[in-house]
């Protein structure tokens, strides 16, 4: 899930469907132990966390953005609680950050970050939640930058158990030899259970492709203007 419009689509499409906790994961996330997610939810309930995820700055070498919010490749949110006061217009007004607004201890962050970054349009959603007093559980993450795979990051649960691998670049799988081999190496190390046949509900944003192309077009213009 990427982009603020995806968040809006999610809340509107899943409204009144009886969802309490929503687990979100990109297609390039490979779970080491899926059962740990349910332990994570229990921990969030017991400690009044509304959202969990990995900081978008300071913990992944190639993500040097804002550490006060998460990167949405993996997240768990208290959907029922947030749905009760969800307000699209209020959220959109929160794409800003004030100096020293948040009191997170960032001293232990290993990599670069930018506390003033507004790089992702979806940041406003998480700023909005924080300004309402909701707690975010920031999960630990690590990278083995001395290995051949200097892209994948591992994410750990609150108890230190390895939860998942985020391989990145799933769009290149099958098209790019380097990324295909790299991702296959991760998958081969997992204990994958046999698939269970289900009839899932599929929600599609009919305008996604148009919006995605428009966003790329605007980025190209901005790059040309900055040169």
Q: How many strands in all?
A: 10
- Calculate Rg over CA atoms: 18 Å
Assembly status: single chain
Strand line-up in the sheet with most strands: 1-6-3-7
Domain module tally: 1
Number of H/I helices = 7
Form type: globular
Question: What's the helical proportion of residues?
Answer: 25-40%
What is the residue-averaged pLDDT? 91
Uncertain stretches of 5 or more adjacent residues: none
Class by alpha and beta content: alpha+beta
Query: In percent terms, what proportion of residues is strand?
Result: 15-25%
Major beta sheet summary: 4 strands, mixed
Describe this structure in words.
The chain has 227 residues and is an alpha+beta fold. The chain has one domain. It contains seven helices and ten strands. The strands form three sheets. The chain has a four-stranded mixed sheet with strand order 1-6-3-7, sandwiched between helices. A four-stranded antiparallel sheet has the order 2-10-9-8, with no helix packed on it. Strand 4 and strand 5 form a beta hairpin. The protein starts with a helix and ends with a helix.
Question: What are the SSEs and their pairings?
Answer:
Elements: H1 4-13, E1 21-25, E2 29-31, H2 35-46, E3 51-55, E4 57-60, E5 63-64, E6 70-78, H3 79-85, H4 88-92, H5 123-131, E7 136-138, E8 141-143, E9 153-156, E10 162-166, H6 177-188, H7 208-226
Parallel strand pairs: 3-7
Antiparallel strand pairs: 1-6, 2-10, 3-6, 4-5, 8-9, 9-10
